[in-house]
Specification:
Layout lengths: L19 E6 L3 H17 L7 E6 L5 H11 L6 E9 L5 H20 L3 E8 L2 H6 L10 H20 L1
Parallel strand pairs: 1-2, 1-3, 3-4
Helix pairs in contact: 1-5, 2-3
This protein binds riboflavin (RBF).
Length: about 160
Amino acid sequence: MPISGLGKVDKTYDGSNLKIGIVHARWNAEVISALVDGAIARLKDMGVKEENIVVMSVPGSFELPFGTKTLFYQEGKKLDALISIGTLIKGETMHFEYIADAVSHGLMRLQEEIHVPVIFGLLTCLTEEQAQARSGLTKDGHNHGADWGSAAVEMATKWKGARN
Ligand code: RBF
């Protein structure tokens, strides 16, 4: 028997009644900008209205968990899902490991705290080229921001249905 829903990205959900928040870091601006644009384009493709997409920036990825929480409260807890976007590029010191770990745990904890899905939009790349490929800036690249947009609509829809 065929099993449905095995594809990584499901674009079949309807976002027309959803309000989505995007919080992004400002480090690695070109990559971030492509990821945010990719997420917004996919949200719109899936029916989310432009006025229901709220965007806020924070200095760097370490600020993503608190920034995401701030946007949620700033919008009167009316967001159906949040997407937290940042790009970490490994340097010569240990910052990469510490920030990646802190942000992953922070975002995971946050969604349990606010009871709203938080989509993990953190690229953790070893090189600048990897970040460009994963934001669709290279010829054979793929914009992961688009996938995060789909994940936000799917998770918001499922959670809305479950809690009602
Ligand atoms: N923030 C990012 O979003 N991406 C990075 O690649 C990044 N690299 C950093 C490297 C170092 C050595 C430091 C100290 C910070 C870096 N940050 C980066 C910023 C960090 O996420 C945060 O904004 C600052 O540490 C202020 O809390």
